[in-house]
Amino acid sequence: MKKLALVLMIVFAVASLLSAKIVIWSSENQIPALQKLAADFERDYGIEVEIQQVNFGDIKSKFLTAAPAGEGPDIIVGAHDWVGELAANGLLEPIPFLPDADQYYEVSLDAFSYQGKLYGVPYTIESIGIIYNKDLIEEAPKTIDELEQMAAEVADDEVVGFVYDAGNFYFSFPFIAGYGGYIFKSTESGLDVNDIGLNNEGAIKGVSLIKKWFDDGLIPQGANYNLMDSLFKDGLAAFIVNGPWATPHYRDAGIDYGIIPFSEIELEPGTTPKPFVGVQGFMVNAKSKNKLEAIEFAVNYIGSFDGQYGMFVGERRGTVREDVFEYISKDAGPELYDVLQFSKSASVGTPMPNVPEMASVWGAMGDALSIVINDQDTVENALNSAVEKIKSAIGE
Amino acid sequence: MSTKKLLGFIVVLILLSVFGAFGLMSLILLWANANYGLAIILGVLLVSIAFVLINPKGYPYRYMIPAMILLFILTIYPMYYTFKTAFTNFGTGHLFTRPQIIQKLLSNYYYVPENPEEYSFSVFVKLKDYKPTDDFMIIFRSLSSNELFIAPKPVAVQKDSEGNILLAESRMFSVKNDRATVNGVLYQLVRSSQDNSILSVVSNSGEKYMYFYSPDDRTTKSNAPFYLSEIRGIWLKNAEFTNPMGQQVRLNPNRLFTDFATSERKYGIKVITSIESGRAVQKNVVYNKKTGRVLIERDGYFYDIDDNGQEFAVDGYISNIGFKNFMKMFKDPRISGPFVKIFIWTFTWAALSVLFTFTIGLILALVLNDKKLKGTKIYRTLLIIPWAIPAFISVLVWKNGMFNETYGIINRFIVMGLFGAEKPIKWLSDPFWAKVAVLLVNTWLGFPYMMTITLGALQSIPDELYEAASIDGATGFQRFRKITFPLLMIAVAPLLVGSFSFNFNNFVGIYLLTGGGPAIPGSSTPAGATDILISYTYKLAFEGRGQDFGFASAISILIFVIVGGLSWLNFKLSGAFEEVNR
Question: Of A146, A252, B449, B549, which has the highest C-beta tally within 10 A?
Answer without folding.
Answer: B549
